[in-house]
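queue> pop job 88
queue> type: inverse folding (structure -> sequence)
queue> payload:
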């Protein structure tokens, strides 16, 4: 097996600046220079993006930035001992020991197991002390390879305080299902309390295993039997069900979904991010046992074994607002495929069958076929074949759009109550449509169905009834209550509110329409695909079906939202083309992709730029998108397609004015972001001089400290780097 660490990957007592991103870039460069990564920038970008999700600093002055990316060709481990230390987000202060774990996307389990083993070793104080005492790079390599079990420990020559044997073995063994057996036999007389824990992080290399070992070690110090299950990249060995059944409480220290969570049904539990398992393992164990000792403590209900977050629980960090945002965005995300497919098919139906195809489509699809083409259809249809294919496309799209409110309500309920909430949610959504309560009724009904299903599932049912709860009892009772309330109490008032809102929008003309367009444009750009963006988009698609030739306002709103949402990525693409020198190499690559993303109405194409420079990119995007929104409403541009950007030109009326609005907004945003980056970043003429100066000779470049830049990849030495790496999503 290729060695994970070499002396060339060890940096001792180096000054790497004051930013974690600078340290990561330096270590990524060292890995790339050894031929272990094909792009230092790609590795650094992935590691910094992971760092921005959850800081990798852990107690004891240690940080473990890590990434799995196709930029890595050989599994590698780099180590830096920093002077001065750098803040990586640990509660107890900056880190002076930094291990960077770089794994390829397809890394084998053998390598991942070794990397995970190292992470576990870092919770051992004697191993960490040895690293701090090491005088040479070779000593560090020897210590690490001994910890990984790749060589025999040299007990005579090891530095004072070093481990004489593999320091991860004890923790690794105690984290398996076999550990409780030995614990029980060793302390049978005392009969210690038992806590089971599941740890998992998105990458599944470092935090997963460090949290597990920290919990085991904390339990040992407290006299508590702790059994852990690590759901990481090197595989998962589930805890035996008999051990779970005998446990007093459960700790979920996870950043991702827990696999097969139903095994823990009925157990008292706490759920926290994985880093909390490293930072405060004793506190988590105490909280879990406190839940067990409290009669009304949290219990994992059999019907709700998805990620439950109780807003009034002291162990949950999810506020009421964050909880509502999560469940609403879940509903919207599941609704959008119905909207996108249905809207585009309806638009295709208009193209083939003419704008009066709704008057003919049902009769045509039921009474005709390709072998019996229709003879009666509108004048704008592309002949009998066009009329028939247009009718089929329109009807499929119309039926898909008919699921919009039901899908929204169903998956809002699903986000609250897991699978038992789907049927009540879909049912109450259908009732909302029947009552004319529309989009607002779907949201309220979905919340109602979800919380009722969640409440019913919280009851401790007898064992003989538990199997029926999620498939019969909960859907039945929750559907009856939520849909009954929608029919008898809520449907009428919500319907009146919806009708009044539609009438108000239809009456908007002139300045009022332009103001509405401006507001919608700002909403589309303020968080680039986030909750505010989704609210504006959902508002537009919810009214799309109500549009008509006599009432085109819903179609105008759809065109406004789509045009404004295209501006941010197109503006960033234009900015990188106009002044490439003020963008990092990764941003320039993202800029090329942003042309297509923006043209297709994918606002998220601007997220990499906003993530690395939000105070310049987002305000610039807001201004341009707001102007575009106001212009499209002023021009009365309409779109009968809910998605697709310029690729659904056939569904957009006044397409040239639609393009003009986008071009104007794009230019405004691009120029504004350039001005902000040039003048605000360095200050006035100095920034302008830097941006327009000729390229420096290629050498190992170091950007100024006020922008937080670091030594760059030699292949990109003449490119300045941004203060943070691109954090684009995969």
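queue> result:
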């Amino acid at each position: 097996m290729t060695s994970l660490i070499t002396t060339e990957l060890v940096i001792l007592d180096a000054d790497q600046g004051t930013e974690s991103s600078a340290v990561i870039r330096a270590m990524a460069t060292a890995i790339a220079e050894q031929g272990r990564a094909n792009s230092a920038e790609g590795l650094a970008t992935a590691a910094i993006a992971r760092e921005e999700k959850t800081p990798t600093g852990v107690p004891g002055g240690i940080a473990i930035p890590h990434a799995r990316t196709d930029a890595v060709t050989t599994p590698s481990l780099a180590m830096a001992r920093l002077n001065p230390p750098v803040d990586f987000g640990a509660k107890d202060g900056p880190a002076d020991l930094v291990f960077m774990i770089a794994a390829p996307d397809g890394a084998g389990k053998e390598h991942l197991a070794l990397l995970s083993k190292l992470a576990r070793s870092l919770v051992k104080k004697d191993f960490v002390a040895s690293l701090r005492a090491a005088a040479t790079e070779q000593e560090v390599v020897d210590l690490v390879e001994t910890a990984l079990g790749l060589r025999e420990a040299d007990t005579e020559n090891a530095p004072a305080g070093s481990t004489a044997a593999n320091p991860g073995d004890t923790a690794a063994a105690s984290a398996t299902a076999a550990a409780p057996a030995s614990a029980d036999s060793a302390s049978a007389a005392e009969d210690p309390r038992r806590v089971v824990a599941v740890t998992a992080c998105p990458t599944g290399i470092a935090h997963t295993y460090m949290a597990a070992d920290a919990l085991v070690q904390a339990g040992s110090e407290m006299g508590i039997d702790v059994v852990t299950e690590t759901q990481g990249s090197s595989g998962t060995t589930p805890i035996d069900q008999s051990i779970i059944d005998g446990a007093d409480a459960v700790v979920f220290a996870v950043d991702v979904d827990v696999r097969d969570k139903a095994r823990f049904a009925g157990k008292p539990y706490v759920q926290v991010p994985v880093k909390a398992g490293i930072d405060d393992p004793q506190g988590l164990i105490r909280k879990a046992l406190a839940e067990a000792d409290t009669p009304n403590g949290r219990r994992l209900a059999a019907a709700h074994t998805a990620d439950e977050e109780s807003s009034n629980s002291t162990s949950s960090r999810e506020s009421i607002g964050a909880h509502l945002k999560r469940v609403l965005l879940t509903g919207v995300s599941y609704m959008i495929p119905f909207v996108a497919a249905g809207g585009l098919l309806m638009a295709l139906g208009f193209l083939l069958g003419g704008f009066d195809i709704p008057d003919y489509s049902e009769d045509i699809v039921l009474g005709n076929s390709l072998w019996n083409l229709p003879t009666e259809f509108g004048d704008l249809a592309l002949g009998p074949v066009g009329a028939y294919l247009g009718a089929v496309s329109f009807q499929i799209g119309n039926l898909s759009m008919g699921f919009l409110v039901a899908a929204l309500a169903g998956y809002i309920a699903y986000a609250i109550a897991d699978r038992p909430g789907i049927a009540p949610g879909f049912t109450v959504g259908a009732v909302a449509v029947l009552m004319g309560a529309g989009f607002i009724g779907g949201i309220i009904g979905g919340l109602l169905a979800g919380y009722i299903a969640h409440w019913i599932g919280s009851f401790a049912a007898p064992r003989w009834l538990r199997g029926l709860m999620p498939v019969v009892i909960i859907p039945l009772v929750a559907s009856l209550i939520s849909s009954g309330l929608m029919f008898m109490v809520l449907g009428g008032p919500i319907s009146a509110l919806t009708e009044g809102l539609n009438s108000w929008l239809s009456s908007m003309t002139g300045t009022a329409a332009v103001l509405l367009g401006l507001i919608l444009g700002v909403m589309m750009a303020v968080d680039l695909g986030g909750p505010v963006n989704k609210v504006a988009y959902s508002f537009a698609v919810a009214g799309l079906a109500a549009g008509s030739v006599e009432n085109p306002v819903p179609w105008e709103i759809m065109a406004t939202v789509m045009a404004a949402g295209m501006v941010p990525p197109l503006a960033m693409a234009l900015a990188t083309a106009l002044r490439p020198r003020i963008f990092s190499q990764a941003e320039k690559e993202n800029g090329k992709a942003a042309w297509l993303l923006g043209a297709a109405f994918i606002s998220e194409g601007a997220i990499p730029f906003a993530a690395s420079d939000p105070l310049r990119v987002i305000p610039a995007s807001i201004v341009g998108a707001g102007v575009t929104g106001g212009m499209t409403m002023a021009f009365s541009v309409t779109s009968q397609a809910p998605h697709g950007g310029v690729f659904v030109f056939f569904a957009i009326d006044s397409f040239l004015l639609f393009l003009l609005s986008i071009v104007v907004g794009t230019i405004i945003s691009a120029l504004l972001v350039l001005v902000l980056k040039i003048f605000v970043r360095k200050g006035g003429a100095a920034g302008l001089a830097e941006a327009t100066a000729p390229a420096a000779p290629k050498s190992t470049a170091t950007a100024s400290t006020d922008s937080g830049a670091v030594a760059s990849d030699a292949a990109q030495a003449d490119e300045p780097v941004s203060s943070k790496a691109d954090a684009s999503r995969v």
